[in-house]
Amino acid sequence: MMKQKFFSTHNDYTGLIIRLTIGIVMFPHGARAMLGWFDGYGFTQTLEGLQQMGQPWLVGLLVIVIEFFAPIFIIMGFASRFWAIALGGLFIGIILFGGHLEHGFFMNWFGDKEGEGFEYHLLMLGLCLALFIQGSGKYSLDNLISKKLTA
């Protein structure tokens, strides 16, 4: 019964659109942190950087793992609700403890502020909440699993 609720989804395009949006936007961030792609630092340097910012190594490890694996599994539509919760938690942490609150709401569009606001993070948090409520939608592994569990 719990598995069925976990993998259940509305079989429509809404979940697909949300999944692809989150995955396409987040994958480069995770690949930068984990693999050093897109001019990133890679795993070791990212972990060290997070520790220098005051994060315990376990929190840094979770940040990197969630940023990298969540978009991949969300794009595939596998355990999307779980990954949406993980990513949503990550973005709550980034807003509260990542130094974005002190810079206000808006991103630093013109480069005239010391740091970035939290508007992007709030958008991602909203998408994660929508994915959690909606489910993975069409063309997802969750949809296939859900059908097998109900059969």
What does this structure look like?
There is one protein chain. The protein has seven helices and no strands. The longest helix has 23 residues, at 13-35. Helix 4 (57-76) packs across helix 5 (80-97). The protein is mostly helical. It is found in: Cell membrane. It holds the Pfam family DoxX. One of its GO terms (cellular component) is plasma membrane. This is DoxX family protein.
Keywords, separated by commas or semicolons:
151 residues; single chain; 7 helices; mainly alpha
Number of helices: 7
- Could you give the count of β-strands? 0
Structural class designation? mainly alpha
What's the Cα radius of gyration? 17 Å
Q: Segments where pLDDT lies below 50 for 5+ residues? A: none
Largest sheet: none
Shape: globular
Beta-strand fraction estimate: under 5%
Mean pLDDT: 92
Q: Report the helical percentage.
A: 55-70%
- Order of secondary-structure elements: HHHHHHH
Terminus-to-terminus distance? 13 Å
Family: Belongs to the DoxX family.
Main location: membrane
Membrane topology: Multi-pass membrane protein
Keywords: Cell membrane, Membrane, Transmembrane, Transmembrane helix
